[in-house]
Design a protein that fits this description.
Elements lengths: L3 H13 L35 E5 L5 E7 L7 E2 L4 E2 L4 E7 L4 E6 L5 E6 L6 E7 L9 E5 L4 E7 L4 E6 L6 E3 L10 E6 L5 E5 L4 E5 L6 E6 L9 E5 L4 E6 L5 E5 L6 E6 L5 E6 L7 E3 L7 E3 L6 E5 L9 E7 L4 E7 L3 E5 L6 E8 L5 E8 L2
Parallel strand pairs: 22-29
Antiparallel strand pairs: 1-2, 1-21, 2-3, 2-4, 5-6, 6-7, 7-8, 9-10, 10-11, 11-12, 13-14, 14-15, 15-16, 17-18, 18-19, 19-20, 23-24, 24-27, 25-26, 25-28, 28-29
C-alpha cells in the first residue's frame, strides 16, 4: 500500500511548481511535465485498425485526441487540442449507435461530451450533478443493461454511481468504500461486469453494479499514479489499460487474477483516457463520405434526405436516428434510393443517423438540427 503522506507530499510539490491536480488529495491529474518533443504519427491510419481513441496530456493544459491501433502505441492526432475545466477523467464507447464519450474530471461544469472521431469536435451530452465527491475519475457504458456508470474518489474511499444521460443526475450505488481507496477508472465488460483500478493500492477490484461493494481481484503489478484510464474491447472482452506511473504504457489486464502485461510503450508523458470501438462483422464505416450513402442538408431544420445512390438493392436498408444521449428518436425502413425524413419535431441539437444496409454493413452519419 502506498503511504498517503508520500502521495500528499507529491501533490503539494507539484502544486507549488504550478501544476494543477484534482481537488482531492490524490495525484489523479496531470503527470509531471517533460520538455521532450513527443512525436506524432502524421500518416493517416485506417479506422478499421485504429479502434482506440485517447486523450494525451503532452500539451497540458490542452489535450489532444488521437487514434491508435491496439497492437501498438503510435498515435495519429484527430482535430486540434482542446481544453477541459481541469482534466479529462475517462472515456467510453456507447453502442447502438457507436458514440465516443469523454468526461470532465476535476471541476464544474462536470460535462460528458460526445466526441466526433473524425474532426475531434465535442458536443455536451449532459452535465453531471449529485456526485459524492467533487471529481469524476472515470465513466463506462454497460451495454448489457444500457446504463452509464461513473466513479470518483477522495483517496481514502471510492464511490460508484449511475448517470442519467438525459439529466446528468448521478445516483450513488451503495456507500463510499475504503476497500478501493483510489478508483481512477471504471470499466464494463460486454455482460455488464464492472472493474476498477485503484492507484493507492495498485490493485484491480470487481465492483457489484447493484450494491456498490468492491471485491479484490489482485495486484496489478505496476506502480500506478496520476490520471489514467482502462476499457474493455467488447469484441473479445480484452481489458486494455492506458497506464501511467513509472512509465506510460498500454497494458492488458487479466481479470481473473489482476496482473497486467505490457503491450507497448507510449511516447507520451501521459495518456489520460481511452475509449475502444469494438470490431464488428461487416464493420462500421463512421462518417465516411465514400460509402455511397449521403445525408443532406446538414445542418437541417425540418427535413433531411437519405440518398443511397442506387448502390444497394432495395428494399432492406433500415434507418435509426439517435439523439446525442444515445436514445432512439426515429426508426424507418428505406425503400427507395432517395428518402425524405421529417425532422420538424426534433429539438435543436446533434443527432446520429445509423443506416444498416441490406449487405450487412453499417454507416453512421452525424447531423445538426437548427431551429
Amino acid at each position: 500500500m502506498k503511504n498517503p503522506i508520500t502521495i500528499l507530499f507529491i501533490v503539494v510539490y507539484f502544486i507549488t511548481t504550478n501544476f494543477v491536480f484534482c481537488q482531492e488529495p490524490v495525484s489523479c491529474g496531470p503527470a509531471p511535465f517533460s520538455s521532450a518533443n513527443i512525436p506524432y504519427n502524421n500518416n493517416p491510419v485506417d479506422f478499421a485498425f485504429s479502434r482506440g481513441f485517447v486523450y494525451d496530456g503532452n500539451a497540458y493544459p490542452n489535450f489532444q485526441l488521437s487514434k491508435q491501433r491496439l497492437a501498438d502505441c503510435n498515435l495519429t492526432p484527430v482535430g486540434s487540442p482542446v481544453t477541459f475545466a481541469v482534466f479529462p477523467g475517462g472515456a467510453t464507447v456507447k453502442r447502438d449507435p457507436d458514440i465516443l464519450y469523454v468526461n470532465e474530471q476535476g471541476d464544474a461544469p462536470w460535462n460528458i461530451w460526445s466526441v466526433d472521431t473524425v474532426t475531434g469536435v465535442r458536443t455536451v451530452a449532459c452535465t453531471m450533478n449529485g456526485m459524492t465527491f467533487n471529481n469524476v475519475t472515470g465513466i463506462t457504458w454497460d451495454p448489457a443493461h444500457q446504463i452509464m456508470y461513473g466513479i470518483n474518489t477522495d483517496l481514502t474511499t471510492s464511490q460508484i454511481f449511475s448517470i442519467n444521460m438525459s439529466t446528468g443526475l448521478c445516483t450513488p450505488i451503495g456507500t463510499a468504500s475504503a476497500t478501493c481507496a483510489g478508483a481512477i477508472s471504471v470499466s464494463s465488460t460486454s455482460t455488464g461486469t464492472l472493474f476498477c483500478i485503484d492507484i493507492v493500492n495498485d490493485n484491480l477490484y470487481k465492483v457489484n453494479r447493484t450494491t456498490g461493494i468492491f471485491n479484490l481481484v489482485g495486484s496489478l503489478g505496476y506502480d500506478a499514479n496520476y490520471g489514467q484510464d482502462a476499457q474493455f474491447d467488447l469484441s473479445d472482452n480484452k481489458f486494455y489499460w492506458a497506464a501511467c506511473g513509472g512509465a506510460v504504457q498500454l497494458r492488458v489486464i487479466d481479470t481473473t487474477i489482476g496482473t497486467s502485461a505490457v503491450v507497448c510503450a507510449y511516447s507520451s508523458i501521459q495518456i489520460c483516457t481511452i475509449g475502444i470501438f469494438p470490431k464488428l462483422p461487416g464493420g462500421i464505416n463512421k462518417d465516411n463520405n465514400d460509402t455511397g450513402v449521403n445525408l443532406y442538408p446538414n445542418p437541417a431544420q425540418n427535413k433531411i434526405t437519405i440518398n443511397l445512390q442506387g448502390l444497394h438493392t432495395l428494399p432492406g436498408s433500415n434507418l435509426s436516428i439517435y439523439n446525442i444521449q444515445g436514445q432512439i428518436v426515429l426508426q424507418q425502413t428505406l425503400n427507395q434510393n432517395n428518402t425524405d425524413i421529417d425532422i420538424s419535431q426534433f429539438q435543436q441539437g446533434v443527432y446520429i443517423a445509423k443506416i444498416k444496409l441490406n449487405d450487412g454493413s453499417i454507416v453512421q452519419k452525424k447531423f445538426v438540427v437548427i431551429k
